[in-house]
């Protein structure tokens, strides 16, 4: 009887707690005003039930690690200065972006901005990978130039021939493609892929700021907004419910390239040699071994990554291939590292977001370090709405790169961004400029000319004197526009347009497999050995894993 009484008390307590939770979860605990209720102002409070792991990604739990700590430094250039940093948790693609995934992007861009239309003629070409990166002056490699990107035999191989600029554009497109699919699946939008009369101009930022400007202003595509209590609360464009906002947590976070610190942290995967809150030993590769060959009995002697093993030796002798490939190989051909990431050592090197500098700054931020921040803001028109890039040829902004290639700065239909102004940084302590690329390393304050005004300093020689923006002029004989570069001699290859790439590739020697090694290349160039993968931010707690209170792992 006493046992039944105790159970009854426990059940009653749970019901009381549940009812209290239910009665207060939809209202402000400080004012009592209900959220998401049109009768009381329709003030928004979204629900967060945990973040789903994005498709094709794995969760990387953040923490502290020593960035730039290498096993070998045969170059003796002190290019990997060790520094202890903290990295926030994030999600990362388990493999490099493949040819088939990038080809999907290319096809979608061609459909939305057909090159047959004069105003879009440069857009499609600007996203195509450079297939000529495979050519060699003294090598028979045309079969790769002709087949590697489009032939189904290479569908699951990492895409190469993509510049840093193109990789960033892919990340932006992926954000929009994922969120468009999510809105369709949740019934907020009709399936525009089935409607040939609607041009897919979906942009996540525009959707949140001014959704009426999407789809050539055809608001009939919107089916359902966010359901509210106390009434439907219809808004323009949505047949039921209110407009979706960022506060609702419906849309996915933006995709981007990893920072150098994030990439190196994920590649090292020190969780494999963690003991409680200490790291035991040092890892030379992405796997927890000090050798590049497999030590298991069944596959003893096989290489654990795809890399160049010696002069003229890309895979081993015929009949005994120790790494299985002479060029990039399928993305899941080797075992993943401790985080579940494939090919963080070998196969292809990968672009990261950072601008290159020879050393990691001694005074650098030790929390999520990154060099390359350019802070901007959305352009607002006289009508108080965001200004979009128009679809007229005159409004589309193109950029002529030093190698002569023409690319779009922003796709038509996206929001125009402008640099922040002096009024935006007044009395701020956390940042003092729009472009922070040179911060503490090449800017006025880091030079002996720190007391110069802006005009004086701009006329002085720069520490990193990158080429000026190339111009075009018409050839008097043919009438065609030709690229013209300035003839100034350069003292360094490093500039604010030089980006870091990490990891060894199929054409590199074993030395470069160490995740801490770093190299650089201009952001507009592409090669046959550099690919990329995306990351996205993790919201909420560092880990989704439930741990006992005050536990020691």
CATH topology of the domain at 28-370 and 501-543: paralog of FGE (formylglycine-generating enzyme)
User: Percentage of helical residues?
Assistant: 10-25%
Radius of gyration: 27 Å
**How far is it from the N-terminal to the C-terminal residue, by CA?**
42 Å
With helices defined by DSSP (H or I, 4 residues minimum), what is the helix count? Answer: 8
Strand residue content: 5-15%
User: Looking at this structure, what is the CATH superfamily of the domain at 28-370 and 501-543?
Assistant: paralog of FGE (formylglycine-generating enzyme)
Q: Major sheet, described briefly?
A: 4 strands, antiparallel
The residue-averaged pLDDT reads 85
**CATH architecture descriptor of the domain at 28-370 and 501-543:** Alpha-Beta Complex
Q: Uncertain runs with pLDDT below 50, 5 residues or more?
A: 15-24
Please report the first level of CATH classification, the CATH class of the domain at 28-370 and 501-543. Alpha Beta
Question: What's a concise summary of this model?
Answer:
The chain is 17% helix and 13% strand. It is of the alpha+beta class and 553 residues long. The protein starts with a helix and ends in a 16-residue tail after the last strand.
Features:
paralog of FGE (formylglycine-generating enzyme), four-stranded mixed β-sheet, 553 residues, 13% strand, four-stranded antiparallel β-sheet
